[in-house]
Structure formats: structure tokens, C-alpha cells
Design a protein that fits this description.
By secondary structure, the protein is mostly helical. It has five helices and two strands. The chain has a two-stranded antiparallel ribbon with strand order 1-2. The longest helix has 33 residues. It is elongated, with a radius of gyration of 17 Å.
Length: 145
């Protein structure tokens, strides 16, 4: 799921800190806005917009963090609104609902652990690419050279 590799250059201390903060932003927003799934995406988007003209290392990791939060938004929003419909309508809890919530929890826990690991490694200047998101980020985020 995670690929640690060499980056095109060794990022400086300031770059590593900013890149690491892109992942920490999503963790802080997750804790602060837990019941509302969009809060994580908004916080990560704001950080991305503030750093989109930064160095390639920072832009790359801000983009990867943003893409991961986008998929988390879809998974959590579906579960959130399904839960709301169960609470406020006459819909009942089914095996499909329980299976979805368990799957969403596993996905969120995996993403949470991967985000912490990536934030720590990126802070050390180590380039970490996530499966799927890393390849997508490579397509979106181009180096200026």
C-alpha cells in the first residue's frame, strides 16, 4: 500500500516540514470535525491551495493528501447519510449497513495509520507514495524542470 522511494532531490528542512503538515492537517481536521466528513477535505484543500506554488516536494505531498481525503469524503459521506436515514426515517439496520460501516471503519483506520506514518517519514525528507494515490499524484503534479 505504501512505497518508500528516493525523490528527485533531497528536500530541505522547510520543505519536509510543509509536506508533513499536509498530512497532519487532515488528521487535525478529522479529530475536530469527526461527525462531518467534509471538514477533512476542506482543511486539506485550504492547505493545498496555500502551497500549490511551493516546491515540487511540497506540492506533490499536498496533492497526494488531498486525493486521499477526496476518497475518504465519499466513503464517509455515504455512511453518514445512511446512518442519518436510519435515525430519522423508518429504515432499519441491515446486514448490508453493518458490513458497510465495518468496511468504512477499516478503511478509515488504515488511512489514519498510513497518514501518521507518511507524515513522520515525509518530515524526515523521505518520499512516500501511496498505492493508487501516488500514481494519480504523479499524473497530476508535474515537476517544473
Amino acid at each position: 500500500m505504501i512505497n518508500v522511494s528516493k525523490f528527485a532531490y533531497l528536500p530541505g528542512e522547510h520543505e519536509a516540514e510543509k509536506a508533513s503538515n499536509s498530512y497532519l492537517m487532515s488528521l487535525i481536521a478529522f479529530i475536530a470535525g469527526l461527525p462531518l466528513p467534509i471538514i477533512n477535505l476542506i482543511a486539506t484543500l485550504i492547505f493545498y491551495l496555500g502551497n500549490r506554488k511551493g516546491t515540487y516536494f511540497v506540492r506533490w505531498h499536498c496533492t497526494q493528501a488531498l486525493l486521499s481525503q477526496l476518497s475518504v469524503l465519499f466513503i464517509n459521506s455515504f455512511g453518514f447519510w445512511w446512518t442519518i436515514s436510519i435515525i430519522f426515517t423508518d429504515e432499519i439496520i441491515t446486514d448490508k449497513y453493518i458490513a458497510y460501516i465495518i468496511t468504512a471503519l477499516i478503511f478509515n483506520l488504515t488511512e489514519f495509520i498510513a497518514t501518521i506514518y507518511t507524515a513522520v517519514q515525509t518530515r524526515k525528507g523521505i518520499h512516500v507514495e501511496w498505492w493508487f494515490y501516488g500514481n494519480l499524484t504523479n499524473l497530476i503534479c508535474k515537476s517544473e524542470s
